[in-house]
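hi support,

uploading two proteins for the ticket. first:
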Amino acid sequence: MSTLFVNNLNTASGSTITVPTGKKIVVTDAGGVQVPHMVGQIVQSGTIAAHSNSASATWADTNYTLAITPTATSSKVLVHFHIPYRLNGTSTYMRGAMRLNRTVGGTTTLIWNTDSNFERLHVRNATNEHDAILSMTFLDTPSTTSAVTYTMQSYRHNDSGMNYISAFQSTYGGNILLQEILG
């Protein structure tokens, strides 16, 4: 077997390079083949069944948090959250909000729902509680090869009761999925 050393491939004619039938190109390292805009890696949480709740009108971290380490600074991260939530109270309005933070090297940046208390969850004329699912997808450009942690925060407005970020039953819950999209 011989070894071919080359920095670039080009065609002698035409615009395609063909690998003959029955032959393969074998790459021995993860990430050895990179095509722009392909998924480089996927990180997913298991089912998050534990709950967190907020009884005060302040932003609070939820238990929806997950980290990924991009392989290139040109990569983007596609963030998917699927979060069961419950607004509970006796007022005419039950209002809450969610926002997404990115943390790299101890520095936290608000990246989704950047208006400090913009309502994402709102029920009018409710009698006691409202259950729903918040599903969200966001494309982030962290521009780093350091670990990136994404954390969802919740907020309960002053005129509401409790804002539960939880599972409807102990065995059900939401999840987080992070995909590195190669640049």
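and the second one:
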Amino acid sequence: MTKPSAGYDPFAFWQRVLSASPDLRGTGEPGLSLAYNRAMYDLRRRVLERELAREGVDPRGRDVLDGGSGVGFYVDWYLRHGARVTGIELTDAGAELLRRRFPEARVLQGDLAETDPGGTFNIVNCWDVLYHIVDDARWEAALTNLARAVAPGGVLLVSDVLRPYHGSLAGHNKPREEAAYARVLAANGLAVRRTVPTHWFLNRDLKLFKGVNRLHGLLHLTDRLLLALAVPSWEPANRLLVARRPAGATGA
């Protein structure tokens, strides 16, 4: 695993990215087309819907916390499905964008490692965010805050690579393995139920075959088929971790 860049400033980095790309490219793949990013996020939506259904959780009328809201893909999805949504966004560029686009949502600006969202939530959602926290102590603090926000009987959805990773990384990425997540979650009263792939070809470095990214429709169709067949993704790939707090339990 490569070391994070010495000059990495998370606020400055994401402020610049979201200011330049206030759409799905800002939180997805900024070097690829908007159509590619829409296909990639559609796949995430399908995984989200499937896993909530497997847990028997209907977002309608529920309180949802979205950690690292970015340009608001998940804020929008939960609002459209009848949830009461609180989003936490690191940057003022992102927070301003969210408040303008989703006035019905409650938007907090702050670092996940430091921000208390207030109260507990039936669903706590944090996709493709925590591996951008390269400091281990701050990563654990952020995950602890998210875990403590899960209400009794509530569900936590958080994504990371969750497997050993030995490739090269950008300075703003540091994946953690499932065991590290399980340790922090267990200390805060949550049990991991499963981890599932979120994609196979989309959102992956195809290396010598990167030109295939222009065929995002074909990649999207292929990933949907593999998703339906529950085919294991090859390493390394992002996975969604599903955890729950038992009904009647309280936070740590």
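thanks. also noticed: The first strand starts at residue 63 and ends at 67.
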